[in-house]
TrEMBL record, chains A, B:
CDD domains: HTH_LacI, PBP1_LacI_sugar_binding-like. PANTHER family: HTH-TYPE TRANSCRIPTIONAL REGULATOR GALS, LACI-RELATED TRANSCRIPTIONAL REPRESSOR. Coiled coil: none annotated. Keywords: DNA-binding, Transcription, Transcription regulation. One of its GO terms (molecular function) is DNA-binding transcription factor activity. Pfam families: LacI, Peripla_BP_1. The keyword Transcription regulation applies. Residues 4-58 form the HTH lacI-type domain. This is LacI family transcriptional regulator.
DNA sequence: TTGAAAGCGCTAACAC
DNA sequence: GTGTTAGCGCTTTCAA
């Protein structure tokens, strides 16, 4: 199939190709008659506009880059699902890139976005990333940049997150109200801001309720099912007394839960367990895993809406970056429910 | 920040811009000395190649379009995860589009892909779609097209799917070998081909092992957790005797499992339950839910690998379309394991 | 080993 | 209303 261009349509109709271009773009100065003719000819010849050419010439690509750690994580695929939907409805295409938590990969992806002349970039930062020049360069080029969930600290960039502090607070408060007193918190290395915030919420809740903050109950490390199991094993080895665990995210919490059950510890009677993220499995396991819901769909929508505003705003620089903070929701299930009401 | 082009680099070094272009593309005819100079100048000026221009000129976009029903479904996001990874490693960018199961939306997305001059398209067809001209047009333009999981019937297009017949057979055979005799199969209305195949596998396994095919044990309807519960309720109401359930997918199986446990039926001792899809929660629930793994990661990888071959092949037309059928894997967990070995 | 020049398909300023 | 013209930033002959 020969490539059809506006020149071919022009030849067909014996008019100039710029008239064709204008007709196809519904330019007001073109008569309805010619527009109709052009559209029919385009249809007949099976013409498709070349976005590469029009973007190159006009400087508008109507494409945005989305960078996430991994689509294999339901939280991210769910947010991308929401973003794609709204951006599409507004005429934008999505270039997708997964960092797989790697800094190098993230850098490469941002570079590809820049080379592709995207109209803007929405990103959630990789676990490994501690330097942010690649994000800074986006700003230098005056390209709209928006973070969701995982934010690069120190950069003045609009973002949509949930209130992780509040989430940490809610989870801990719930455990306290259920009568748990020695509450372990599993958290990751402190490079990722959201985990720091959850920790801060944990500490503040303890203090507000007059419980001591015991450093031996705060476990730093990683997050994964295995790490959760490992933490419980260590606590038992070191004979640390505890009666509840608040894990930074659900898979880790699930590991904790499994290891406790393996040790024949009764959950929630002896030990309570709560996670973070409200992954779908939490409702299906036994006992149900209490968690903090991260509002993935509202987050995707809020991110897309805010981003559209950024794309439309003339002076990105002068508009101070907005930070939308969504409220996390406490989800109580069997793993922490040992009192009739919380 | 002013846009930097190869012209700027050329001016900086007092050489022609075509030499710069060649140097940046590592053209063999350029001396190492100039290459080095050019690369340094590019770095210094913060040059970024304009992919729009190079793609327009060269006719190669190194971008592929991926069309899926929804990233909100873990099966699809998981496959996209795999495809993106491999295509990225091979230097391709991903344009992503969700049909949200709508025919119109799918058509629009394919059009966008065509306008963006993608090098190829990987798609899984929307539930609503029954006409396939938009896919046919991709082929007319000699652009590589590949389906995964959901195939447009009647088109000669390479595809990657799993063997759903075999999956149904494996699940049923496993139950039989575990000594279950009256095996219920829950299936959906027979419009979707994959469910028909699973049913066929179920029937054939029964017959091969000399068990009767009892119509009262085949339940037609829908798929969801609630539907699974409903099925069990009905079976009890109608006093249908059964000792195992093979559900068309995991959420339905989970509903069955929950309802059985609510009825104080012992699983797997009294009744065995197996699902299909191997959703992540299956390993986390108690008892673990046996299932048929759909090989999402291999499917993504196989799709990407086959697609790369298509992209490289000179004569798409003459190479007969391949159909890769992946083997489903039986995953045995607590919900069906009542004998020491299967 | 490098330079000159054409042109990918389109948009948009400037004519008339 | 429509045509003419000049590029957008690159790749790729053809020459030297």
């Amino acid at each position: 199939m020969k490539k059809v261009t506006i020149q071919d349509i022009a030849k067909e109709l014996n008019i100039s190709f710029s008239t064709v271009a204008r007709a196809l773009n519904d330019h007001p100065a073109i008569s309805e008659a010619t527009k109709k003719l052009v559209r029919e000819a385009a249809q007949k010849l099976n013409y498709r506009q070349n976005k590469l050419a029009s973007s190159l010439r006009s400087g508008h690509s109507y494409t945005i880059g989305i960078m996430v750690p991994s689509l294999g994580v339901s939280f991210f695929s769910s947010v991308v699902h929401g973003i794609e939907k709204i951006m599409n409805e507004n005429g934008y295409s999505i270039l997708l890139y997964q960092s797989n938590e790697s800094y190098e990969s993230e850098k490469k992806g941002i570079e590809t976005f820049l080379n592709s002349r995207v109209a803007g970039i929405i990103a959630s930062v990789a676990k490994e990333t501690t330097q942010y020049e690649h994000f800074f360069e986006i700003q230098k080029r005056n390209i709209p940049l928006l973070f969701f969930d995982r934010v690069a600290e120190g950069l003045q960039v609009p973002a949509v997150t949930i209130d992780d502090y509040k989430g940490g607070f809610l989870a801990t408060e719930h455990l306290i109200r259920q009568g748990y007193k020695r509450i372990v918190h599993i958290t990751a290395g402190q490079t990722i801001g959201i985990f720091k915030e959850r920790l801060r919420g944990y500490v503040d809740a303890l203090q507000l309720y007059g419980l001591p903050v015991d450093k031996s109950l705060i476990l730093y490390g990683d997050f994964s099912l295995d790490f959760g199991r490992q933490c419980v094993q260590e606590l038992y080895q070191k004979k640390v007394a505890f009666d509840a665990v608040f894990a930074l995210e659900d898979f880790t919490a699930m590991g904790v839960l499994q290891q406790l059950l393996d040790y024949k510890v009764r959950v929630p009677e002896e030990v309570g367990v709560i996670g973070f993220a409200n992954e779908s499995f939490g409702a299906l396991v036994t006992p149900g895993l209490s968690s903090i819901d991260q509002q993935t769909v509202p987050m995707g929508e809020a991110a897309a809406e805010l981003f559209l505003k950024m794309l439309r705003s003339e002076d990105l620089y002068n508009n101070l970056p907005k930070h939308i903070v969504l409220d996390p929701h406490l989800i109580v299930r069997g793993s922490t429910e040992r009192l009739a009401s919380s």
